[in-house]
Task: structure prediction
Amino acid sequence: MNTPPSPNQNHLLAALPSAEFERIAPHLELVAMPLGEVLYESGGQLHHAYFPTTAIVSLHYVMENGASSEIAGVGNEGVLGISLFMGGNTTPSRAIVQTAGHGFRLKARSLLEEFNRAGPLMRLLLRYTQALITQVSQTAVCNRHHSVEQQLCRWLLLTLDRLPSRELTMTQELIASMLGVRREGITEAAGNLQRTGLISYRRGHITVLDRSGLESHVCECYAVVKQEFDRLLCDVRNRHDFS
Result:
């Protein structure tokens, strides 16, 4: 029996002290996030922040010629729409659902009212933003200096960290789009991982058979991002007093 979606499935919402959570809870709206849905476009005005619970959203930077690649992913550990509370209101990236699921959205006004109290929500969101900046920066370095196979391992591990199972529904074409590489490169890299028994790939379904093996193949970038998230957000599993 499926568990009904709950705001507590998002680690940031679950970390809020009760008083702060109760103020925003009436304004949280459960939304379905189907695969491929664009939550906001590059340069568009943001009206909501999104707190994914079971969905994963990919942030893409889109070039003038339409080419794009992923600069970060956001799942149940985070929030979409940091430009709302950072003061920019728009962003040059596109947010598109990578893994279908659910999340909760909050109108910009409600988010800013609580953020401007300069209390636990503000401090929590700023720490998350620092961790997200690390992910974006490390992705840029990884895409420049590491092999497609290492990039694929990094992407698989970061995605697994946001999922309750070892199975991903994702075509090679979509992964190539995420990483900004040729599909042939993903085909070769996935084939290598499958031959070594680390993954099983069949018709758009990837099953990770040996996570520790993936971790031994991945470049340093995965650990850098994971350690920074753990350092900054190690206390977000349950509600705490951030004062």
Observations:
- The two ends are 38 Å apart (CA to CA).
